[in-house]
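Module 6 notes. Inverse folding takes a fixed backbone as the condition and produces residue identities as the prediction. Think of it as a translation problem where the source language is geometry and the target language is the twenty amino acids. Below is one complete input and output pair. Work through it position by position during the lab.
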């Protein structure tokens, strides 16, 4: 059965189902369609599915025209009906894995999706999880459920894990050029998983198990979180010493070995770096281990919005203004520049703290025209169109997300005060306060 499935995959005669058409699943669906596969796109969100059927996408960097063409030709079939999974030879799960209110892993999207799929699975399929999670998830959560449905994993059904490595806004790498790590529950499972991804990705990196593959993604994002925490802490130290941390980083980056630049900011955002390390700290406790280093990095990064807020208060005071009743315009709502993703964005938390301090808050973001629905934060706002008049009527502009679309010269010419949390303006620039 393994050889038959691999042969079908390599001939591009297999059907691929992707469950979860978000920032990970939709680019992956596009890639498989581009390489000639028939793709079934599954999602519980009717609005997403309807938009794709009308040839529209809801993610800015994923184009719409091709999806309309693929939908009309039958190559791409978006649906909310999970029974369509029976027609697929490979099913890829790309669902959220957030933290709950106690900062512990919430696998409800993964397990709930699998429970919905189980009645529609059949022998001869590959199921691969891409969602970032703690080491052991596939083996401990997916494997028992699949085996409980009567399948023999590695013989008549194949189970793998391949962590997503999407980086929205990165112009140097895309889904096909980023190497893909893949591990299987058995050697046969890994072979099938590798065969699938080899058809669409330039380089596939096999590892010994699903646990190892899960640990790879946790290592990657923990590495980033810890190093960002280091430069965030150094930024505060450098500020106290009157040193420009961005000048220091640029100079250090000239060393051709033993150094990799990381940049400070207003806090971590997105669905990976602020969350993934806590998956590992949670799992480590099961083994009686305490990841103090990782947890400390999390504390530093989580505290950065408070540091930025203190700089806003200081800068306003320097201009004879209190935070209360000041008009503050936040530049950038998304968590990183040149994307429309607002998940875990420090901008939103800063807006909430500014509002709690009595400020009148607005925002400008060319990628986010309306403030999105969120569970924790609610603002009835739309993005301000930046103009000399709009800029001039605010007491302070807080640069949180440095989109390339912003006209920084025009902003500086007309702003009364800028608090720069991204180092976009040169140190010592008039009316600019680093944060």
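Target side of the pair, the amino acids:
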């Amino acid at each position: 059965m393994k050889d038959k499935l691999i042969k079908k995959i390599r001939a591009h005669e297999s059907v691929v189902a992707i469950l979860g058409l978000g920032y990970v699943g939709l680019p992956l669906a596009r890639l498989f369609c581009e390489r000639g596969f028939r793709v079934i796109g599954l999602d519980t969100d009717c609005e997403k599915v309807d938009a794709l059927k009308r040839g529209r996408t809801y993610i800015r960097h994923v184009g719409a025209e091709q999806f309309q063409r693929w939908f009309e030709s039958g190559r791409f079939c978006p649906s909310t009906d999970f029974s369509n999974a029976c027609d697929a030879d490979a099913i890829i799960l790309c669902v959220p894995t957030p933290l709950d209110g106690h900062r512990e892993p919430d696998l409800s999207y993964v397990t709930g999706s699998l429970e919905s799929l189980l009645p529609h699975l059949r022998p001869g399929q590959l199921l691969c999880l891409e969602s970032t999670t703690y080491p052991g998830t596939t083996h401990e959560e997916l494997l028992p459920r699949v085996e409980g449905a009567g399948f023999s994993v590695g013989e008549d059904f194949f189970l793998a894990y391949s962590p997503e490595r999407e980086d929205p806004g990165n112009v140097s790498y895309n889904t096909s050029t980023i190497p893909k790590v893949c591990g299987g529950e058995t050697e046969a499972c890994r072979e099938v998983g590798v065969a699938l991804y080899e058809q669409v990705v330039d380089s596939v990196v096999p590892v010994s198990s699903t646990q190892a593959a899960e640990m790879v993604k946790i290592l990657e994002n923990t590495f980033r979180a810890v190093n960002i925490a280091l430069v965030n802490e150094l930024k505060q130290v450098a500020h106290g010493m009157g040193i420009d941390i961005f000048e220091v980083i640029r100079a250090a980056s000239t060393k051709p070995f033993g150094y990799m630049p990381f940049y400070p900011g207003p806090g971590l955002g997105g669905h990976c770096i602020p969350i993934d390390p806590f998956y590992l700290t949670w799992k480590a406790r099961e083994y009686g281990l305490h990841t103090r280093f990782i947890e400390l990095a999390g504390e530093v990064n989580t505290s950065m919005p408070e540091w930025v807020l203190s700089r806003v208060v200081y800068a306003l005071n320097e201009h004879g203004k209190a935070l209360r009743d000041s008009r503050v315009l936040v530049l950038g709502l998304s968590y990183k520049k040149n994307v429309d993703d607002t998940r875990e964005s420090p901008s939103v938390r800063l807006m909430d703290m500014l509002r709690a301090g009595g400020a009148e808050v607005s925002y400008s973001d060319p990628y986010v025209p309306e403030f999105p629905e969120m569970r924790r934060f609610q603002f009835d706002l739309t993005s301000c169109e930046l103009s000399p008049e709009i800029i001039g009527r605010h007491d302070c502009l807080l640069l949180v997300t440095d989109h390339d679309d912003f006209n920084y010269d025009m902003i500086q010419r007309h702003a009364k005060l800028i608090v720069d949390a991204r180092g976009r303006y040169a140190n010592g620039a008039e009316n600019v306060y680093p944060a």
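Reference fact for the lab report: Residues 304-434 form a domain with the Rossmann fold fold (CATH 3.40.50.720).
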